[in-house]
Amino acid sequence: MAQVKPFKGIRYNPSKVEDYSKVICPPYDVISPSEQEAYYAKSEYNFIRIEYTKNETGEEKTDSKYAQALKTLENWLDEGILMQDSEPAIYIHDHCFYLEGKEFRRRTIIGAVKIEDWSERVIRPHEGTLPKARSDREMLLQTIKANTSPVFAMYEDQNGSIKSLLNSLTGSKPSLATRGYENDWHYLWIITEPGLVDALSAMFDQKPLYIADGHHRYESALKHRHQQESLAGETTGDEPFNFLMMEMVDFEDPGLINLPPHRLVRGASEKNIENLMPNIEKIFDTTRIQLDRPDAWREIESLMHKSEDTCLAVLGPKKDRVCIASVKDQSTINQMMSSSWSDAYKQLDVSIVDHVILQGLLGFTDITDLSHIAFNHNREEVERLVKNDEYQLAIILRPLKPDVIKSIADAGERMPRKSTYFHPKLPSGLVLKRLV
Questions:
Q1: Contact, 255 vs 95, CB < 8 A?
Q2: How many whole angstroms separate alpha carbon 101 and alpha carbon 289?
Q3: Nearest to residue 383, comparing CAs of 205, 248, 264?
Q4: 68 neighbors 56 (Cβ within 8 angstroms)
Q5: Which CA distances in Å does 17 have to 23, 338, 353?
Q6: Residues with Cβ < 8 Å from 58, sequence gap 6 or more?
Q7: Which single residue of 20, 136, 419, 428 could bond 415 by disulfide (Cβ 3.0 to 4.6 Å)?
Q8: What are the pLDDT digits (tens) for 278-306?
Q9: What is the phi/psi pair of residue 229, to 5°?
């Protein structure tokens, strides 16, 4: 199955950079324009200049910003800001963070993973991607020949052997202990001893890997591999472009947190908005909760999580109440979806939201149009946006459990895009891998 091997990672030089909280940043896909500016201002060596650089040359060529990222990478290597480890390593990364007042620790393994075609079923996706985002990562990868941020993947550790080995390897002082860019901490152990590296690698020989986050990055690396194979003619399979940096986590890790990506809607016709709730009542059992009631959201969340069937909540068009909706008859729902999809896919909350409500009831033919459909995992922020009339309504979702994600991926299907939001995002700039 998955081939995992060590690599000579490139990291910030601790003798040049003392405060990692000023230089690491989130991955490109969660950085807003204002946040991009903020990370630029944090430090002249913030990794944003490689991960998601601005076009500072004034040139109109769309590829100029990628050339700037390459120049920055090469300059920082020449100046010793970044350094490459002298020995191939597998890295163990503990990410400690807070969520809703609780402390979590997520343990991951960073390695070079063999890039496989989807058809091989070694690497398994769970959701779709967008061409624009793929194009951006393809351009960056082709220009700088490096993985700037890892693909995040999940694995099964049924007998606990990987967990046991990781516990034994992290008993010593980490090579790096640093604050992150938020109220979090990162600990990194660098494993170079050949016997231990081989033992870690061998544990993945019979395992598939399930992409949690980074589908665009993986597809970009896959396309790049095909291009390089075509140019090279004959290849051995061991060339650097055959491997990408991946960060892997146990399905059962208590720090594996998936938040629900709620849907925000605007631009729907007045007629469809007017008919929405009557149409919902035809195919869903509904319960209305007034938001001025004490602990209204606690009651809403309790009712949603108690339901064993499909369940979602609609905030709007009336902004003083939430309508909790659960499916009356799954066969009615099935008729509104493609017959090519499995029963498991049709029963997903997110599938019903996207295909039945957004497409069927609200009339959006293109649910990838970000001018009409937005995503936000922060329920309080979602409520504020609707109440401020920035959006007509919101659909509140429950988080998908990892075993549901696995079952869909095992069936060879992909959920609607933005079906998951794994929190927190893996940092960019902790380790990177060159493909040359």
A1: yes
A2: 26
A3: 264
A4: yes
A5: 8, 54, 46
A6: none
A7: 419
A8: 999 999 999 999 999 989 999 999 999 98
A9: -65, -40
Residue 248: name the closest of 197, 206, 225, 214 by CA. Answer: 214
DSSP secondary structure letter of residue 287? E
How far, in whole angstroms, is CA 42 from its chain's centroid? 24
Q: Which domains does the chain have, with CATH numbers?
A: 4-257+423-434 (no CATH), 261-398 (3.30.1760)
- Which SS3 state, helix, strand or coil, does residue 370 take? coil
What one-letter code names the amino acid at 230? S
- Residues with pLDDT less than 70, the chain: 56-63
**Residue listed under structure tokens 């149009």:** 369
C-alpha dist (Å) from residue 297 to 10, 262, 302: 45, 15, 8
Question: What is the pTM assigned to this prediction?
Answer: 0.94
Alpha helices in 82-212 (DSSP H): 131-144, 161-169, 194-202
Compute CA 65 distance to the chain's CA centroid, rounded to the nearest angstrom.
Answer: 24
Angle at 31 (CA atoms; ends 145, 319), nearest 5 degrees: 150
DSSP string across 223-253: HHHHHHHHHHSS--S-SGGGEEEEEEEETT-
Task: Tell me the torsion sign for CA atoms 338, 341, 346, 351.
Answer: negative
Of 327, 346, 348, nearest to 284 by C-alpha is 327
For the record, the structure tokens of 250 come out as 């146990």
Q: Phi and psi dihedrals of 337, rounded to 5? A: -125, 165
- Dist. CA 239–CA 223, nearest whole Å: 15
Residue 202 half-sphere exposure, CB side, CA atoms within 13 Å? 8
C-alpha pair distances (Å), 388 with each of 277, 319, 382: 21, 9, 10
ω into 88 cis (within 30 of 0): no
168 Cβ contact list (under 8 Å, min separation 6) = none
